[in-house]
Amino acid sequence: MDKNMVKTNGFISFFKAIVSGMFIILKNKVLISLNNMVYDNVQKMYETSYTTAIQTIIRNSKIDNDRLSTLSEMWLCFTELIILLVLSIIAIYIKERIFICIFLIEIVAILYENKTIKTYYKEVNK
Question: What are the distances in angstroms from CA 67 to CA 2, 78, 80, 88?
Answer without folding.
Answer: 26, 16, 20, 31
